[in-house]
Structure formats: structure tokens, C-alpha cells
Design brief:
Length: 370
């Protein structure tokens, strides 16, 4: 297997195995409308050669806005503007997936106080200090419906895939996390029960959109919380098998429940030494071995030859990259020309410090590391 080869996942035709991992850009307007700047970001990415673009997360419900400046897909009026985004990607030969999220108590939006935020259980979020409303079965149905409606709109807009944000401490992943999920009904307790909401969303989407839209899930391999509080690797392997059974087309493996309060996230810093790159390799390798569905390795992928080795030596089939594509949206084209090319990104997370997300290196605010 080669990084630069054509593959097909459901109806997505990928020219190579490098995928742009989702990046919230803080560039949509207050209602989640796509701005000219945001179109430009995706145009540059599409021209840059990635095998598949995953958009930044889009809100599925106007009452649930995990972050300002995120895109919306919460009613039919969004279909046209997303169609334009899809056309930009397809016009530059890049397939594109829409990432959708429901935040719940993990919201960083200043206006959250005016809304009811859902959670599997009414447990105070250690970071935001928000105690969500424990969801009734009807609330769960409502959320499943919101995701399904969003997928139908994405399908109408022409997206190749939808990716459910089921990682990092947002609502879906809170169901997998024992600290957040204290339920004793069919949505709590065993790993099968804790995965149930994912299964219901996947099955409901498939029923609503038919066969051609691919369904992807970004999930944690470990919540990195204290013992007994978080999802663990053996459980994540079970989740992956359950999602495969439910019909998911691709799994992107992330990590960290940011509600842990430990101040860590999935975007690690200081990973310029080769040994620190591709930092979720071991758990992702195990998950990829346990399922047949294609698995994407995410986090700190920076060296082409290392990725090619991983492709040859493990069952991992795809690699996703986020921060380096802020610096260099054409990184994949550069690798195509020269597999020794070293990306500029030094994983400083300066991209988070700006109002609008972008690379601080590009603006020469801090010097490039040697
Ligand atoms: C500014 C910024 C915004 C992000 N937005 C999202 C997002 O919308 N959805 C998501 O699943 N992950 C998001 N992430 C996490 C990235 O997708 C990725 O998992 C992480 O940056 C690690 O990959 P990397 O080392 O290639 O950057 C974001 C990360 C950063 C730095």
C-alpha cells in the first residue's frame, strides 16, 4: 500500500491517504453562516492536494453552540451555502466531509446561559462549571433527530461524507465517559449501552440518506482521566467494533476528554522530535487490528516516510493532519514532489491564540524553530 494511491470508501474517491482533520476556524458569522474568508480557506486546502477534507465542526441545533464562529447546518437555509463550499472542494478534485457536533456542557460560547444544555447525567463539567440537564429518552431522540437532519442537509449539499464528532468531551463522547454518564438505563453502564446513542445516530442517518453518503466517526481511544472516570483503550476497541457493526464507513481515532480538567487536549505541543510524532499510534494500531472498517491515525503526523512505514506495518489505512495544514495548505502537494519535505508546523498551538484561527508562524509573530 502507498500513501499516494487511489482508494475508495463507499462513494468517496481519494487520491491519497492523507486527510485534513477537522479544524474549527472561528470564521463563520454569529448565525453560523459561511463567510468569504472561510470559503477561501477551503479553496486553498482543496488546491493543496489532501485526499479528503473534513470541515471544522458545524452545529446541528441553534440552541447548542459549543464555540463562537463555528458553521451551522441546523436548518434547510444552510444547504445552498454548503453546496457552494462542496462545489469549491469538488472543483479542485477534493472530496469533502462535513463534521457535525453537539456540545452539551462542553461549550465555550459566551451566550450559553440562555439555553438548556443536555448531558447524559446532571454532572458538573469540571472545565466550564456547567451542570447539564440529564437527558430523557425523548431528549435523546431529539438529538438523534438533529444529527439526522444535519446529515440529510449535508447529503443535499453534495458532501461525500458526514463525520460525527464523537470525541474530545462533546456530548456524544460524554456518553462513553463513566464520569459524565451515571445512567442506569439502556444508555448507561456497559460499553454497549454507553455506545447506544452513536449506534442510534448512525442507523438513523443511514435510513434517512440512503446508500451513497459515507458516515465517519471521530472517537476517543482513551479519555486520559483518572481511573474509573474515563473511557479506556480496551473499551474503545469494543466501541469501534460496535460502530463497525452499526455500519460506520471510517473511524478517526482521537483521544482526551477535555472535560477532565487536566488541561490537556488532542493537539499536543512540542512534538518536533520524530519519536514524539504520530502520538496516538499504539492505541490506534490496536483498534485498526480489531476491526475491518478503515481506521485513520490522527495526532502529530508530520513525517511522510514514517507514515508510509506505519501503512506498511500496521492495519492503519489513513492519516489525518490538522495544524500543519494551517501553515501549509499545500503540504500534500509538497510531499508528492518530495517525500523528505519537513512541514513548517512546530505544534506550538499558536493557532488557538488568535481571534480567527490561523498560523502564527505564517505571520512571523514568533520565530521558526530550527
Ligand atoms: C484551532 C484548532 C481547532 C480544532 N477544531 C476541531 C474541530 O472542529 N473538530 C475536531 O474534531 N477537532 C478539532 N481540532 C483537533 C484537530 O482536528 C486534531 O485532532 C489535532 O489538532 C491533532 O492533530 P494535528 O497534530 O495534526 O494538529 C482542532 C484543533 C485546533 C488546533
Amino acid at each position: 500500500m502507498q500513501i499516494f494511491e487511489n482508494t475508495k470508501i463507499r462513494n468517496i474517491k481519494l487520491n491519497n491517504r492523507i486527510i485534513r482533520s477537522a479544524l474549527w476556524m472561528n470564521m463563520a458569522d454569529n448565525d453560523g453562516r459561511i463567510t468569504p474568508k472561510l470559503y477561501k480557506v477551503y479553496e486553498e486546502l482543496a488546491k493543496g492536494g489532501v485526499g479528503l477534507i473534513i470541515t471544522g465542526y458545524a452545529m446541528v441545533d441553534p440552541n447548542d453552540r459549543p464555540n463562537p464562529g463555528m458553521m451551522g447546518i441546523y436548518d434547510d437555509s444552510f444547504i445552498e451555502e454548503h453546496k457552494k463550499l462542496v462545489d469549491i472542494a469538488h472543483g479542485n478534485a477534493a472530496p469533502i466531509a462535513l463534521q457535525v457536533a453537539y456540545g452539551g456542557s462542553q461549550t465555550f460560547h459566551p451566550d450559553y446561559k440562555n439555553t438548556t444544555l443536555f448531558g447524559p447525567s446532571a454532572v458538573e463539567n469540571r472545565v466550564t462549571k456547567i451542570t447539564p440537564k440529564e437527558m430523557t429518552k425523548d431528549d435523546i431522540k431529539h438529538v438523534v433527530k438533529m444529527f439526522t437532519n444535519a446529515a440529510v442537509r449535508a447529503h443535499k449539499a453534495g458532501y461525500d461524507a458526514i463525520e460525527l464528532h464523537g470525541a474530545h468531551g462533546y456530548l456524544l463522547s460524554q456518553f462513553l465517559t463513566p464520569f459524565c454518564n451515571r445512567r442506569s438505563d439502556v444508555y448507561g453502564g456497559s460499553i454497549e449501552n454507553r455506545s447506544r446513542i452513536y449506534v442510534e445516530v448512525i442507523e438513523s442517518i443511514r435510513k434517512a440518506v440512503g446508500d451513497d453518503l459515507a458516515i465517519m466517526v471521530k472517537m476517543n481511544h482513551d479519555d486520559y482521566m483518572d481511573e474509573g472516570e474515563g473511557l479506556t483503550v480496551p473499551e474503545a476497541i469494543e466501541v469501534a467494533k460496535i460502530l463497525e457493526q452499526a455500519g460506520v464507513d471510517m473511524l478517526e481515532i482521537s483521544g482526551v476528554n477535555e472535560t477532565s480538567g487536566k488541561g490537556i487536549g488532542p493537539a499536543r505541543t512540542k512534538i518536533h522530535k520524530p519519536a514524539l510524532q504520530s502520538y496516538y499510534l499504539e492505541p490506534t494500531r490496536k483498534i485498526a487490528k480489531a476491526v475491518n472498517v478503515p481506521v485513520i491515525l490522527m495526532g502529530g503526523n508530520r513525517n511522510y516516510k514514517r507514515l508510509q512505514n506505519i501503512l506498511e506495518e500496521t492495519s492503519i489505512q489513513y492519516f489525518s493532519i490538522a495544524r500543519p495544514l494551517l501553515c501549509e495548505p499545500d503540504l500534500v502537494n509538497k510531499w508528492k514532489e518530495n517525500t523528505d519535505y519537513k512541514p513548517m508546523c512546530v505544534s506550538c498551538n499558536g493557532c488557538y491564540r488568535k481571534g480567527e484561527v490561523g498560523c502564527v508562524l505564517q505571520e512571523k509573530l514568533i520565530p521558526l524553530s530550527p
